[in-house]
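User: Batch of two.

Assistant: Item 1 of 2:
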Amino acid sequence: METLNFRFEHGQRQLPATAQLSGVVSSGNLEVLIEAAPLNGACTIEIRTAARGFGKIWQAVLGDFQQRWQLADARIAINDMGATPAVVSLRLDQAVEAALGGQP
């Protein structure tokens, strides 16, 4: 297992207080837990993954995600079992959309 941590500053979109879980950890998939947290406008993401050595790919996927959503004061935890970048993006978007109650 590898643990990766990312922090994105200066987000603008706040999440509601209720945490949201999306996805299921299984072969080739992942789960995402997203919750509001007092982080001075930042968004932190911790990934626990079975696929070692893909930090640069994670950074690119998460950078695109943060550019789309501009989350502030958000903590995200990802448990990964080898999901593809497309599945990662899908699960992250699903978690945010669910947390925001379907608001774009």
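Item 2 of 2:
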Amino acid sequence: MDVRRLHLLRELADRGSVTAVAEATHRTASAVSQQLKVLEAEVGVPLTERHGRGLVLTGAGLALADTARRIALAIESAEALWHEFTQSPQGSVSVSAFPTAGQMLLPGVLIAVRDEPGLEVVLTDHDMPLPDFAQLTPDYDIVIADSQGVPAHWEEHGLRCVPLMTEPFDVALPAGHPLAEKNVVHGSDLVDADWIGAPEGYPYDRVLERLGAAVGREPRIVQRIMDNLIVERLVAAGVGIAILPRFTTRSHGNGIVTRPITGLPAERQISALMRADRAERPSVRRVLELLQHEATRVVQGYRTVGER
């Protein structure tokens, strides 16, 4: 079996359509289909079947696509081992980050890369409408993702998930709010509040779901806003209170204060999500090390400030 044809089968499994595979691999759709037919003839069993106007993988196709992932991983591991003996990490590494992770981690990483000759980081920012960061991994070497726990389908797709940091969520209040006098707030303190919520399904929104379950009443959400800076302005104006991430929320001189929540799980995990084969590349491993270092610096820096 030709490794290049196995690669196309794996791409079909990950991307879901021949058209998407063709665009990603700079081929025509007919050329992709032809190569898949050749592979099917080589193995002697159907690998794809018609579903509507497109193709989906059969059970045999899914099994062979998983084998293709393992082959790609073995090839990258071998090349990484060789490069370790011959040269320092080099090449371009593509990184996708959601906005607040980008604010925390990317400036320090880009400064550090200046001291890595031959290594380049190319950034893109994504804030997923329905956060499924796994769908970005075919197109980026490292996807910085946030989640509460590790979604099962990340592991089922053979992705490598490397924890970077855990970030608590706080309640953002307008300056002068009665709850600002407390060091921490309880769920029962928040029962009658108006809320600026996040889009449904986002980590902040799940905290409000837990709050509703804890107090026996759904929070009264008056607006749903994705951009945290807009949320901060609305909170400062007294439109409502909000759940916001601790390390990137500006709570000094902008009309808001933040307080931790007690008795309610309120945090997110920020991770680097990668295809397992790409995670073996020396250049990707080096950028991952820089991300881990920067994440540690952010967490330790916040703790130091908090202790003063």
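The chain has a mean pLDDT of 86.
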